[in-house]
Amino acid sequence: MPKFVYGFTEGNRDLKDLLGGKGANLAEMTNLGLPVPPGFTITTEACRHYLTAGAFPSGLEDEIDQHLRDLEHAMGRSLGQSDDPLLVSVRSGAKFSMPGMMETVLNIGLNDESVQGLAKQAGGNDRFAWDSYRRLIQMFGKTVLGIDGEHFEEALDELKAECGAKGDLDLTAADFRTLVGTFKDIVREQTGQEFPSDPREQMRLAVLAVFHSWNAPRAVLYRRQERIPADLGTAVNIVAMVFGNLGMESGTGVAFTRDPGSGQQGVYGDYLQNAQGEDVVAGIRNTMPLQELERIDKASYDELMQIMEKLENHYRDLCDIEFTIERGKLWMLQTRVGKRTAAAAFRIATQLVDQGLINLDEAVTRVSGDQLAQLMFPRFDKATDATLITKGMNASPGAAVGRAVFSSDRAEELAARGEAVILVRRETNPDDLGGMIAARGVLTSRGGKTSHAAVVARGMGKTCVCGAEELEVSTKERRFTAPGGVVVEEGDVISIDGSSGAVYLGEVPVVPSPVVEYFEGEGDLDDELVRAVHRLMVHADASRRLAVRANADNAEDAARARRFGAEGIGLCRTEHMFLGDRRQLVEDLILATGDEEREAALSKLEPLQRADYAEIFEAMDGLPVTIRLIDPPLHEFLPDLTELSVKVALAGDAATAKDRTLLECVKRLHEQNPMLGLRGVRLGLVVPGLFAMQVRAIAEAARARAEAGGDARAEIMIPLVGAVQELELVREEAEGILAEIGVDALIGTMIEVPRAALTAGQIAEAAQFFSFGTNDLTQMTWGFSRDDVEASFFSQYLDLGIFGVSPFESLDRDGVGRLVRIAVEEGRKTRPDLKLGICGEHGGDPESVHFCHEAGLDYVSCSPFRIPVARLEAGRAALTSDGSDTR
Amino acid sequence: MPKFVYGFTEGNRDLKDLLGGKGANLAEMTNLGLPVPPGFTITTEACRHYLTAGAFPSGLEDEIDQHLRDLEHAMGRSLGQSDDPLLVSVRSGAKFSMPGMMETVLNIGLNDESVQGLAKQAGGNDRFAWDSYRRLIQMFGKTVLGIDGEHFEEALDELKAECGAKGDLDLTAADFRTLVGTFKDIVREQTGQEFPSDPREQMRLAVLAVFHSWNAPRAVLYRRQERIPADLGTAVNIVAMVFGNLGMESGTGVAFTRDPGSGQQGVYGDYLQNAQGEDVVAGIRNTMPLQELERIDKASYDELMQIMEKLENHYRDLCDIEFTIERGKLWMLQTRVGKRTAAAAFRIATQLVDQGLINLDEAVTRVSGDQLAQLMFPRFDKATDATLITKGMNASPGAAVGRAVFSSDRAEELAARGEAVILVRRETNPDDLGGMIAARGVLTSRGGKTSHAAVVARGMGKTCVCGAEELEVSTKERRFTAPGGVVVEEGDVISIDGSSGAVYLGEVPVVPSPVVEYFEGEGDLDDELVRAVHRLMVHADASRRLAVRANADNAEDAARARRFGAEGIGLCRTEHMFLGDRRQLVEDLILATGDEEREAALSKLEPLQRADYAEIFEAMDGLPVTIRLIDPPLHEFLPDLTELSVKVALAGDAATAKDRTLLECVKRLHEQNPMLGLRGVRLGLVVPGLFAMQVRAIAEAARARAEAGGDARAEIMIPLVGAVQELELVREEAEGILAEIGVDALIGTMIEVPRAALTAGQIAEAAQFFSFGTNDLTQMTWGFSRDDVEASFFSQYLDLGIFGVSPFESLDRDGVGRLVRIAVEEGRKTRPDLKLGICGEHGGDPESVHFCHEAGLDYVSCSPFRIPVARLEAGRAALTSDGSDTR
Asked: Are residues B750 and B875 located together in one domain of the fold?
């Protein structure tokens, strides 16, 4: 029979699966000899059993009884003992922290008799005892019996009004005694039953309530969004109560072992005299800095300092703790490895190395790519005197400054004039897409991190603050008002910080990131943060197995990517080279009516392409450059069907012959679903000479570079291949051209159509490398047209918990990832030296980089600015055993 | 060491892999004691070795020598023996017939000496000997030495002109002797080498040429298109020459053991006196019916009759044969199981059962769904006196009558007036799509069965005759001319037969198919064909494991499907019910600006939906009816963006408020790639009440049917699910409604997004059935938008051999099929009683039905007219061991 209950002396921090985070750490502290109130933990296994079978597993009741007896023995008091009662708290504690999701009941053990005993224990403090009792009924009623909390609040408010009391502190013991009666009445009215006076029954019901809370809708939703498995269950901690509200010699506090903002070692925390933990959270009174405890209660303070040092040495990391002092006696109520800012994470990791607590391997795993990315965004100058007018949610990082505008049309209009604008809306919807594209940043007053604005802005990499609820946005009057009567009219300049959620009036100067300056080779190694980043990057680079390349389409991006550490180009998109002043040549190509016209157009494009490639080869000399042949459908280079149709219709007989011809062509090339139409390799096979022109330009540029003493390493990539036959045909033509010009180049393919992954064993026969185009692969595997669905329903999908993160942000392991694994395995089986990389945007996403490491790819490729992130995460992936922990 | 050469006495018909079809059957006949000229076969393995290694495998030359010696011994002559030479033919023979693709060289063994010996053998027939010699040089020069055949043709024509000869028959022995000299000169001029006079060398080079011909471009292309594996190689048959052109006592013929057109037993064939096989093919003289041979050479005729009976009994099927009579001696040159018409296939299969040659199991495997489908198309009345003006290729079956039109616009214009039209084009291109949709049939003068017209017409199920090369089509003058000066102007009525390729002037009456009348329950069982179909269908039904359901959206289709043998509905699309006079209600729903308006629109739709379902449940009483909730994006119910934009722009200030509002809405809902947009389950999750309305209507219709004493078996199908979470949410809502109304229904999902197949193990937790929507699954797995790509590049893809058949016609086993297998396996692992079906159009395609059987599905669902085809193929699949032979 499994063991369902663990005393705190029986567990340890490695048993989080079984005891939850809180229980495991309480046991760890107990075993370290720290002053933890005695108690025990009912396992997650018991919870899972209950949720499946609808009843306690057999033996659980007995185990609880046994541990309760041990607890009573240790405390020298019994649960419900009328003259000297033991009180306990019943607290949930799952493996993963789910703040605010799960239930807690304090003061279990009180009833009409034991309340007297509690008063006696408290030195005759009747008020304290009756206050505790009414708190029990209130919490129990709400949490265990499911009574709407407002009933209790109202009764409390009425009583205060009757007594003329301003706050709880003005109420007397007698008042609370009256309230206990009223609260019991509420329980009877709302449930038809008496409040249970049997402490053992109180405890049993509270345990059940914690079990049930695992499946409360908000918890289910939270888990979906946070991708926490639904079947873990929660543990339940039953702990002897200690009281910080027994007078000025008592109190409660929270603390960090070092500054979670900067990483500085020292004492950081808050303390509140004569209070319980919930009072600190409620913010009823102002806390004092923890340092002041030294003056108030030096013994407890010194003990706390010793404990904190012990914890940090033991956990080898920053810890946060909760403690209570009951009449001069210090009790530890909780500890865990604490959250910290991005800058602190880097500083702390290297400090711990210097202290000899961890080695560099572990230090690299203690920081994350997301943290590094945060450090790379430009920041607002902290020395500014700009007015902070409100804070919203930090939905998409960055710092943006611009004129406030209140409609998408206006945003586009001003942006077209070159103005920087911030689009301000109550909430956005698909109609705002144009405005969001035009704006520097987006600010909304409603919606959370999965709202439309947040999702779309993150997808675009655009700064966004959402859910700034203090703002009153009036689209009609084109203005918003902020607290303190601040009014911002259309055209007024505001600044928004997508990394902190801050909104400022006026223009806040932006300062470049010192970390970016470091990557650019201009960093200040005297700066502690820069030095920490440098040390960890050097070690990550030394540790990683994945190479990191850049997605870059021009020499400038290529050069920056190289400074940022890119080891080549993984994706050079050639179609971007067809825009701008070359659009006319492309139009000529498309409108060509015979071989001669088409060849003439191609022969004009070829020298231009050759020059493009020459520059890129120069910037990436000696490193591989993967060039993707033209991918989009040709109609993307022509005017929009609807706009041109309207133009020609309005012109009537005056429409130009050119426009008419163009319209015919646009109509002919029009596709219902261009993403799944005539593009990529299909175009290469159907338009004679198109791919050949590109291959020739690549080969000639490479040869010219070699003749100039350089080292161009071209890799020619064929997009959208779904069948090996397609690749064979293109490859044959390309090899002929390469041979003719006398240049060597690898020829490979994107794997971006599901069928390519499913038939990778065949395709590898004709491909020297695969590059996973996970953007398109995600689109086709899910059936999502990114342009359409992100704006139209992704925010609702995130809210519904259908996915925890957009599959375009982080690679979907179960679907897309499975295809990647199939292709890797079967491709390598056919061709053991097949080179494997990824060039979708996922190449710069931390979680996805870990996946790529696990899947056995050779490199990831991402945008130049994400290269440091990818380098760091590739190092972390290599250094973590299972490779899956990115947080 | 493997054996590379087999004498005809060593092989048999089961060795087709090794000996090719021709060699295996020659060996089989030899062993049956039939008069086959002696010879031997070089294996496909030798060919494969040669093609890989570039040289004969060691031992092959020795084996050839040994077999040649045996052959010389058997014939009492030696190769190249000057006074009495042995001549041999060298013929290719692959496992699968590749007509016209591979090489043959006759008369090997002739040179300046042995030609004299041949004349002596032929009783002093010098003309025959020299003619044979020049034929050798001509064939050898062209086939083995790669000389352009025109050089020889020109020399022959010049000689005839000099001699004033009208045909070859007017040339004398001396003329041919001159020609031999001229042909040798051509060989010297073109290759710089002498024609090889060593017969052994002639033979060696001819064998090499056959090996090489396996990889000739036309053969490679043919294999790609016919999906014949590229690595099989060809066998080579070396056979002693016999001559049908040694005078009037000699001759050559072809015959069938029964009529391949009707299946009637008897003697069917043609005979040509004093001729070789190639003369019959060339059609130089008219052949005589085989019966006349009885009069000319009764002994040979009687022997042939005995042989034919023996062959049919031995092969237990219709055989076709080639034979030669050399001065009264009958020789069998080839046999194989013969091709036949669809009607003959059914008749022959049942006749062979009646004769006790095969059992019913085998009879079912001898007919195919494609043949059955051919019998179900309406036919032109054979008794018509309509003028056949030409024949093209039978590209897409059916019989179509209409006015000839020469442009897409004109086709659409006349069709809009209710006229039946046939679109006539030289060839079609994507611009003709509208016209092809509007026309009853399509006729082109260029392009083969993979041309644009053929591919698109087959995709539409539209009658098409293509490549009618005798027609001169003038689009400009709007007419075509046919042989014999027939001119068809625009508006003239023509009739085209897509099953035979025939084109008639005027209207040919169409008669219904007796087989369809049978399926409709009105068939004439006295008709032999109908009786044959009936017997085989009954046995197929008794044998199959797959159930067959129908795709039907209304009661009429459901009733027909049931008559045709449907065992339920596998796909009832509800969106078709939203068209017609209900479009306004749907528009109201889409334009609804609040909950109230939306609910009002839904509540108007609900009773209409309920009535739709009630009718279908009645037609399918007692059988399962799978109803798919609404699938397409809402904008499909609104006007087209471009058209409406032009309309509003042209109206200017006079545009109605309604049109303006509508345009706003159309713009808002517009999607770049609607196939991958807001549709299916996504719509159900995002538009409150939409799915609930449909589920309620289904449940209420089912309850009403039960109350009326009927038996409605509803299965609710959720489209476009990609993640189990989507299905869970919809299912929860639907189950609530079903419980409330008190109706039981299965709830399941389409598997049509690749991710659904890849995560089927998870999805099966929430689904009671899967139905593979292989249309969309094919679109997303290949990245093909069917609307776009079939017309724009599929014909080129077929020509390039990228696929042998469109993946929309026949399920792509490697890609889409792999996903289906994954989903079947993992879905059943989660839920062993998971019901599995297919509802894409592949459900009615023979090859795909076999795949579904192999993959272990429970049923296929297809359009009502394809149900008999699916039933037959499901039976065949169950009766063939490997389930993969559909031809």
From this structure: yes
Residue B301 and residue B430 in one domain: no
Domain count for chain A, please give it.
Answer: 5
Banded model confidence at residue A887, pLDDT cuts 50, 70, 90: very low
Global pTM reads: 0.87
CATH code assigned at B292? 3.30.470.20
Query: Is residue A884 pLDDT above 50, yes or no?
Result: no
Residue A638 lies in a domain: no
Question: In sequence order, what are the residues at sequence separation of 6 or more whose Cβ sits closer than 8 angstroms to the Cβ of residue A150?
Answer: none
Q: What is the average pLDDT across A735-741?
A: 97
Interface test with chain A among B223, B431, B593, B642, by most A beta carbons within 10 Å: B642
Q: Is B781 on the interface with A (CB under 8 A)?
A: yes
- A774 and A818 inside one domain: yes
Tens digit of each residue's pLDDT (9 = 90 or more) over A42-84:
999 999 999 988 899 999 999 999 999 999 999 999 998 988 9
Catalytic residue among B49, B67, B212, B452: B452
> Do both B525 and B473 map to the same domain?
no
Query: Is B504 inside a domain boundary?
Result: yes
How would you class B591 by CB atoms within 10 Å of its CB: exposed for 0-12, middle for 13-18, buried for 19 or more?
Answer: middle
DSSP string for B34-97: --PPPEEEE-HHHHHHHHHHSSPPTTHHHHHHHHHHHHHHHHT-EET-SSSEE-EEEEEEESS-
Give the domain extent around B54. 49-240
Q: What confidence category does residue A495 fall into, taking pLDDT thresholds of 50, 70 and 90?
A: very high
Residue of A646, A754, A785 with shortest CB distance to B781: A754
Same domain, A105 and A54: yes
A782/B753 touch (CB, cutoff 8 Å), yes or no: yes
Percent above pLDDT 90 for chain A: 76
- Rounded CA-CA distance B584/B180 in Å is 84
Q: What is the pLDDT of residue A525?
A: 84
Distance CA B19, CA B37 (A): 17
Instruction: Name the A residues in 435-494 with CB < 8 Å from any B CB.
Output: none
B27 close to B335: Cβ distance less than 8 angstroms: no
pLDDT of residue B887: 36
Distance from the Cα of A661 to chain B's closest Cα (Å) equals: 14
CATH of the domain at B402: 3.50.30.10
Q: In this structure, what CATH number is given to the domain that contains residue B753?
A: 3.20.20.60
Known catalytic residue: B852? no
Query: What digits encode the pLDDT tens for the residues A259-274?
Result: 887 888 877 888 999 8
Q: Which residues of chain B have pLDDT under 70?
A: 100, 224-227, 278-285, 881-887
How large is the ipTM?
Answer: 0.86
Q: Are residues B796 and B706 in the same domain?
A: yes
Domain boundary residue among A219, A240, A261?
A: A240
Rounded distance between C-alpha atoms, residue A128 and residue A115, angstroms: 10
> How large is the average pLDDT for residues A252-259?
90
Domain match, A461 and A522 both: no
pLDDT in tens, B142-200: 999 999 989 999 999 999 999 888 877 789 999 999 999 999 999 999 999 999 999 99
User: Which residues 408-437 of A have a C-beta within 8 angstroms of B?
Assistant: 430-431
Is there a contact between B4 and B66 (Cβ–Cβ < 8 Å)?
Answer: no
Query: What pLDDT sits at residue A280?
Result: 64
List Cβ neighbours of B456 (8 Å cut-off, separation of 6 or more).
Answer: B428, B433, B436, B790, B791, B794, B795
Known binding-site residues of A equal 573, 628, 752, 773-776
Interface test with B, best of A228, A670, A782 (most B CBs within 10 A): A782
Q: Is there a single domain that holds both residue B87 and residue B155?
A: yes
| Structure tokens given for B59 | 């031992």
Mean pLDDT calculated for residue range A185-200:
95
Task: Please report how many Cα atoms fall inside a 13 Å half-sphere around the Cα of residue A226, on the Cβ side.
Answer: 16
**What SS3 class is residue A838?**
strand
